């Protein structure tokens, strides 16, 4: 989990108070970055594209790992006005008198090259209700995020990043927050005792030339059972997961620090720069050097975020 949060490198994009009074409804296009909100007063209805509206009450926390198109309204089924996300405070509905609804909402950015990690980890939406003790913990983090966003103190960006990381960890670490235990994805794999031992081994020593036999022994299962369980939960074979994780580390290293391919290849378990380049091109559809250049130039390379 720590490996993955570090790769996501979250940074604040926007945050603002949202208020409403009377009858109101808004519609936002897909944002495709993580968005979060906590209801401070009153209630509203959130409708994700393709889903039935969900009621949010005071104290509820909500995180959308890959924000789809959504509606937010005072009551379900009413007409909604299209709006564009912004960093300024907004009020919906009647402007007469104090608002009967208050929410603090925000969004943050993660590097596109690693964006798929968050989607793989989390469900479409996390909703923590006010009566859940975890809502209080998340509310305190959100309150600190709000305080930092509204101030201009030294170290603001670094502290915001750490607070957003804490928010993600708090969401990830709670097994009850993401639905049924049989849910597929990397987080489900981390909760499975046998798979978690394999995942921990791979992440602890990515340079090792792991075999299915070695990983099966760690899991305490046969190779057939381990392969089937991996496919069911993580949608790939164990050795395929190792290859994917190596490429994730490689892409992150290429865009953050560069350096000789020989060193990078050795760090992630390839015997030579040539072997690494061949594997990278086969998996990502582009040479490592060209991938790094495209990313630095602001062009999404093939395979980035996939």
Automatic annotation (TrEMBL):
Keywords: DNA-binding, Transcription, Transcription regulation. One of its GO terms (molecular function) is DNA-binding transcription factor activity. Residues 196-294 form the HTH araC/xylS-type domain. The keyword Transcription applies. InterPro entries: AraC_lig, AraC_XylS_family_regulators, Homeodomain-like_sf, HTH_AraC, HTH_AraC-typ_CS. PANTHER family: HTH-TYPE TRANSCRIPTIONAL ACTIVATOR RHAS, HTH-TYPE TRANSCRIPTIONAL ACTIVATOR RHAS-RELATED. This is AraC-like DNA-binding protein. It comes from Aurantimonas endophytica.
